[in-house]
Specification:
Strand content: under 5%
Distance between the termini: 31 Å
CATH architecture of the largest domain: Orthogonal Bundle
Number of strands: 0
Largest sheet: none
Number of helices: 8
Shape: elongated
Number of domains: 2
Order of helices and strands: HHHHHHHH
Radius of gyration: 16 Å
CATH superfamily of the largest domain: Dioxygenase LigAB, LigA subunit
CATH class of the largest domain: Mainly Alpha
Helix content: 55-70%
């Protein structure tokens, strides 16, 4: 089973330039230093963080990991668990929330189209 605490801690530590550099130079050694098990490493190696998101790790915490493995962080926001802004009536949203909701829906549509190719 994926250890969300270890992955979140590792992702957070990637904000440190020396940890990011170590990961880029030798990903396996960097993951060893943070005690990531094989189950934890699989989504990172596959560049598919959806299983981690599905377990509830906040997409904001995963941003440095996205940077390290080359995934645009906005893709994670579109795949994250449903946010409260999606349950709200559109007339009750601020303009910023409405823009965010529209952008996430656009990315979700793009991801669905990409999956059909």
């Amino acid at each position: 089973m994926i250890n969300t605490f270890r992955i979140a801690h590792f992702a957070w530590e990637l904000k440190k330039p020396e940890v990011m550099e170590a990961f880029k130079n030798d990903p396996e050694a960097a993951m060893d230093r943070y005690w990531l098990a094989e189950e934890d490493r699989a989504p990172i190696r596959a560049k598919d963080l959806q299983p981690i998101l599905d377990l509830g790790v906040n997409s904001g915490i995963l941003r440095p990991l996205c940077q390290a493995i080359g995934i645009p962080p906005i893709v994670l926001a579109a795949r994250a668990p449903k946010l409260a802004i999606f349950d709200a009536d559109p007339k009750d949203l601020t303009s910023e929330e409405a823009q965010h909701r529209a952008r996430v829906e656009e990315i979700q549509a793009d991801l669905r189209l990409a999956g059909r190719r």
